[in-house]
Amino acid sequence: MMIPASRQAPPPSDPSQDPIIFLTEALPFPAVGAVKYRDYHLIALLSQYRPVKVLYFSNPEDRHPTDPADQNPRITYVPVKRSRNNLVGEIRSLFRSAALNGSCPRMTAILRRESAQGRILWVSRLSMAGYIPRARKMGYRIILDEHHIESHRIMDDYFDDRTQILTLLSALQARFYEKAFCDEADTIVTASELAAARMRKLSPKGEVRVIPNGIEDLRFKDITTRGGKGLLFWGVLNRPANEAGLIWFCDEILPRLRMRLKEKIPRIRVAGTAPRASLRTRLEREGIEILPASFDIKEALADTSVCFFPCVQGDAAHLRILEAMAAGRAVVTTGRGAAGLSLTPTYDIFIADHPDPFAGSICKLLTDPRLLEAISDHARKTIDSRYDWQASAQRVEHLLKEIGLIISS
Question: Which domains does the chain have, with CATH numbers?
Fold first, then answer.
């Protein structure tokens, strides 16, 4: 059933001013973290073609753009206060996958107010996809940006620890709803060809397009020629995946580095927020420096030659890998860390899943200046040609042409 025209927003007289409604869970500013970073840049790219209204759940800690460089008159932010669940909603939430949010009556009401036949609704991730069935009835055309496949990510967590039966149930539930919502979307967007292949398997009739994550490479231009000496890891330190990776590094990689490099082992630094006391104690015992939570990533990278991301469980480390490469720093990670990125091992990155080759890769880069320079140079060129947001802009423009939102010249 369609929403009656009297309850829909009247279409603007100029079709080019018809806004895209961008639905996301949180204010994508400041653009910190992979999800907010992607949302922030996609909103900016979409605003080049149409005005964008961003609907998100408000938070007392939200900080709206105040710098004129971040203010865009074509982007309107619409905060929505999340409704509290009634008793039935609270009970349902106990059995719902963490990847799924329940529907909020206030958000539904605003979607209804903003609806117009054929208007584009861009939905960011599975967590907001529960609004798709209602939005479909309101007349929206729907683009679901799944970034990565949420059900696959949760299933990976289960395979890391098969005693977690609730994680398995959560993955199966997420897969059921993910397929249902993707089947209802007009277009599905993912961040990599690997995720797209998984999505086509999950939703064979879905129209899947790839818009890779990008990097503002100009942000790092001033440090690309400043060569550092140390090793650097950064991330949210109380996340189980990051903690597991750092413990693996301390247990397996660090002893091998000490054995091979001896007194030439460089300073090793770890940066990020909220390390648990046990992790902090372990890192300090190993002589690894922990940077303050307020660390400046550019300053940290300026004094670094190799960045390491020992992803042995959990998500990939796409954004951190791309930022390090944009700064001209060599990267060593695992296959899981780089999964989905179009990179060439030993050309613009080193990838190793076992302790000996992982430690060996770091040692090669630290002891062979010519190899380090070549990897760093190739990394920067890969970012410029493949992972700059302007390269992604061409994918966005192509998608908007496909759905008739802009006319090919």
Answer: 5-214+389-402 (3.40.50.2000), 217-387 (3.40.50.2000)
